[in-house]
Amino acid sequence: MSFIQLASLKAHEWTHTEEKPFQCSQCRKIFTLLANLKRHERIHTGEKPYHCFQCEKRFSRSGDLKAHEWTHTGEEPFHCSQCRKRFTVLANLKRHERIHTGEKPHHCSHCGMGFIQSRSLKEHEWTHTGEKPFQCSQCGKSFIVLSNLKRHERIHTGEKPFQCSHCGNSFTQRGHLKEHERIHTGEKPYHCSQCKNRFSRVGDLKAHERTHTGEKPFQCSQCRKSFTVLATLKRHERKHTEEKPSTDGVDGD
């Protein structure tokens, strides 16, 4: 391999020797290239020398500015060769391609489970450590996944951002909207492998399958009677909690 500049040759040779002569004075992280060190140091200094002329937003790396500018132009230069889906950022394309290849480069050190994204691995590892870093400011409840916290917070705010295009009903979760929309479309994507009955909700399929297996996982804490469906248990439990009519002053036979 040939190089125009001696410095470029030297930097290339370090990729073979794994030498990293440039060290960050703040966190001691080391780099093969001086340019990479300079870019890294902006994390500590907060310097953002690249700014967007459309909205004045600033960035520490020129590549991040370029990707941002495409959000203004609508340009998506990176496309998947398998399904033709397009992306503004190359890293997002690379992550997407793993769906097709099945590659899971991020592995859990506890159980060996593989993940497409490093973020998914991080969230999974918290199930081993018990860490729940995302806490609700209203009630203090903690969550492993940020999206679960966001969904929970809608209980407090009453926000229902997902609206049915057929009837206008609104929902706190996208999944609940999808289930609801099947009332309008008649879609029943879940089918029983035993009798071919079809259902619009996976929960209804699970409940139905128990009629074949005889499983009754929901048990009354008062009388130990068991039920196939949770709603049936709830209805049954009201018999125990309902106020009994008074018999004071009533003569018995």
Automatic annotation (TrEMBL):
InterPro entries, alphabetized: GLI_C2H2-zinc-finger, Znf_C2H2_sf, Znf_C2H2_type
Domain C2H2-type, chain residue ranges per copy: 22-49, 50-77, 78-105, 106-133, 134-161, 162-189, 190-217, 218-245
One Pfam family recorded for the sequence: zf-C2H2
Keywords on record: Metal-binding, Repeat, Zinc, Zinc-finger
Annotated protein name in UniProt: Zinc finger protein 239-like
